[in-house]
Amino acid sequence: METIRAEAVADGQAPLSSAEVVSKVISPDSSNSTFFKNAGLSTRSLKPPSAAEQALLEELAAQKQKEAAITEEFAEVRKRSEAAEEALLKTQQLYDEMKK
Q1: Domain match, 37 and 58 both
Q2: Most Cβ neighbours (<10 Å): which of 10, 46, 60, 95?
Q3: pLDDT band, very low/low/confident/very high, at 95 (cuts 50, 70, 90)
Q4: How many CB atoms neighbour CB 9 within 10 A?
Q5: Residue 29 pLDDT class (50, 70, 90 cuts)
Q6: CB-CB contact of 21 with 4 (8 Å)
Q7: Contact between 8 and 14 (Cβ < 8 Å)
Q8: Who contacts 57 (Cβ-Cβ below 8 Å, separation ≥6)?
Q9: How far is residue 62's CA from residue 59's CA, in Å, rounded to a whole number?
Q10: C-alpha 30, offset from chain centre
Q11: One domain, residues 43 and 53
């Protein structure tokens, strides 16, 4: 089990949790799947995703990136809008002072 954990780190991946290491050692097809249930792992998650699932995962990742970009852009627009409102308020105050 320590070898599996060390291999993941050597490959540049994040260290595997104990549950992930044990799940690689224990066969998901064994009759005793209590470990997987207790660890909160489904035996399906141990199999590599199908091509359709992989395509959906990639689409989801792309949508999340777009959402993050839109959220960032919205925050920038909000800042510019607030700055424009402040400038307008100052201009109105100056106009009112000049009008008196």
Answers
A1: no
A2: 46
A3: very high
A4: 11
A5: low
A6: yes
A7: yes
A8: 49
A9: 5
A10: 32
A11: no
Range of the domain at 43: 1-47
Structure tokens at 29: 């097809």
Q: Do 41 and 53 share a structural domain?
A: no
| Residue with the two structure tokens 């104990």 | 18
Give the torsion through C-alpha atoms of 53, 56, 58, 62, to 10 deg.
Answer: -170
The answer to whether residues 58 and 72 belong to one domain is yes
**Sign of CA pseudo-dihedral 18, 23, 25, 31:** positive
Is residue 45 over pLDDT 60? Answer: no
Examine the domain organization and report whether 26 and 53 are in the same domain: no
Are 33 and 56 contained in the same domain? no
Tokens representing residue 59 in the block: 């689409």
Provide the number of structural domains found in the chain: 2
Give the residue, 45 or 88, on which the prediction is more confident. 88
